[in-house]
Amino acid sequence: MMEQPTTENLCRATVKPGQRIVDDPIRSNMTVAKAQRSAKAILKYGTPRWLSHPRDFKQWALECYLKDKEQSDAQVADYRMEEQETLTDYKARMIHQMGTREFIKKLRDNGVHCFTYQAPQNAGTPREMLNTVGLWCEIPSQRAIGHEYQGHKHQYICYLDIPTMYEWSVLRTDAHGLPIGEAYRGWRTVLSQLIQRKVLTESKAHEIFGSPSGATSRIYRRTLYNLRNGRIKPNDRAIEA
User: Fold this and answer.
1) pLDDT tens digits for range 169-187
2) Alpha carbons 138 and 146: distance in angstroms, whole number
3) Helix 187-196 to helix 218-228 angle, to the nearest 10 degrees?
4) Quick one: which of 25, 90, 140, 231 is 20 to 30 A from 218 by CA?
5) Whole-prediction pTM
6) Is 60 inside a domain boundary?
């Protein structure tokens, strides 16, 4: 038979009189005497069911949580991205891995003047910037604008994951399935930025890195189609250093 909780056995020791309870930082100022008074107040009207049947209470709490989560998920469903299931398909999208250095070398071997910059990896660097570098490129139609490096003016394009990237970006979501950025940056995403910013033409980009194929490429190909047909306006605004 289960032993019924009492004021004494609720506060029984591992803790000596006058010693502070520090296992829970929220209650770090609690003493044995205070704990005994709190336990007495809890047991004033008998043993609460959550104390005498902890497993039942835990299951009830879990069911309440799942019910609330289901309601919350339904409320935010309209805020999810179009084709989000495709964008979060890790298995389908994490393919054709390429080293970031190899990606940069391919650009340079084909006449693109570019460099990367990594923010200092210290306590002040945002977590999202760890294991990433910023890509700066010369834009042929704006050669006179940007940060000068090795005799050429460069503008910021986007960030890259290091040390490697998969072909397709993978969307990160929160507990309710809402998008909260990228879990992984794909090198095709970088290519689309280079094409939009007019660092490369679409044909040149695919000549260097190959044309995309398969159902996973549908969103990428649609983006480039919309760009070609003026449905996406490229950002021509120069970004000064």
Assistant:
1) 999 988 777 888 899 999 9
2) 8
3) 0
4) 140
5) 0.66
6) no
